UniProtKB/TrEMBL annotation:
The keyword Metal-binding does not apply. The keyword Lipoprotein does not apply. It comes from Gloeobacter violaceus (strain ATCC 29082 / PCC 7421). Residues 8-459 form the Aldehyde dehydrogenase domain. This is Succinate-semialdehyde dehydrogenase. Coiled coil: none annotated. PANTHER family: SUCCINATE SEMIALDEHYDE DEHYDROGENASE [NAD(P)+] SAD (PTHR43217). Keywords: NADP, Oxidoreductase. GO terms for molecular function: aldehyde dehydrogenase [NAD(P)+] activity; succinate-semialdehyde dehydrogenase (NAD+) activity.
Amino acid sequence: MAQTQSPSRPIASVNPATGQTLKTFAPLDDAEIEQKLALASRAFACHRHTPLAERARRLQAAADVLTTGRERYARLMSAEMGKTLASALAEVDKCALVCRFYAEHGAGFLADVPVVTDATRSFVRYQPLGPVLAVMPWNFPFWQVFRFAAPALMAGNVGLLKHASNVPQCALAIEAIFLEAGFAPGCFQTLLVGAERTADLIADVRVVAVTLTGSEPAGRSVASQAGNHLKKCVLELGGSDPFVVLESADIQKAAQTAVTARLINNGQSCIAAKRFIVAEAVADTFEKLLVERFAALKVGDPLDPATDVGPLATPTILKTLDTQVHDSVSRGARVLIGGKALPGPGNFYAPTILADIPPDSPAYGEELFGPVAALFRVPGLDAAIRLANDTAFGLGASAWSTDPAEIDRLAEEIEAGSVFINGMVKSDPRLPFGGTKLSGYGRELSREGMLEFVNIKTVWEL
């Protein structure tokens, strides 16, 4: 491990609804990081030989730990990053689901694949690589980690988590879950370090690969560092997902889903719908329904079951969003509802809808990470597809139509890692997840995600 002076600033857990500092942690120093890397290397030497059935049993046990402690883990997420309690509980459940999915299907995904050649026997074998570094964001503090960790551990790799610095308690809780489930010490470790340590971790010879979920600048940095050391990386970056509504769509259902799709996780999701592209023939009806539903939302304490929208995770995120909205309005965008930060303690922003958005404004081309919807009107299908693709991002897309010909074109021509027809974009352990263009490369989840971090070995025997 390269020697770098540890920062003196502590890693803090701050409640975004109140601004109260909940707990602080001293970042790991050089010696502590070295101990953890050495432990990861030793753990991999054993874990890679653990029978698949035993790996599966431990993942099932991790799912049981999550289910038993779901209320506690959900409250921790709500307190540390501000998601509503209902969404936090759903996140815990989804983490248990992904553990069970790979426990049940992992052995099949990793089974040798025979290939007919001129040899007596030839096949493809899938073998683990070693310690994989996961650089994870704060917005889904459990799910983002478990969707990496479950397939990685099932494949025989070990994990090193560099989590976002504002969710240290979640990061430590996840390590404790895997230990309680029976994974040996070192199979999954949390590294409480700042972002400035990432480059040294990637450079360390014991780290064999890296996965990152985060911003485009973070992706560029990690990809550059991984490439410099010839290490595999998977990047899931930002998104400016379109939500296309055509004349034949079920407008009531589309509008109802649009609210959830935009405001999931208080609007702080890469795959949240952000640009609502609506055919002119139904635009007035859709706009009216969307404004009515936004107006009915309750903003407040994320632990209150009646709350629909909680705070943004940090004051910086709030300031950035507010600047993007004001800049867009100054260039000609029209505020249909909201458009401002809310007074009082905490990082609260009013649910907002912008219309008449000019191409040179932030709301047109940038990712808005918060409860702000950008509404566009288009003549029809051709214009909708052009506008949907008029973005540097390509993570997900939701499209609404009942016309089979329109559906075929939407699925074929929208440039994104996933296209959901008549439903909101979501991640599912059964389906590969990832993006194209500046939304990154590589895949998570499904068999494809598991095979990102294995050695795909050809065996040929005469």
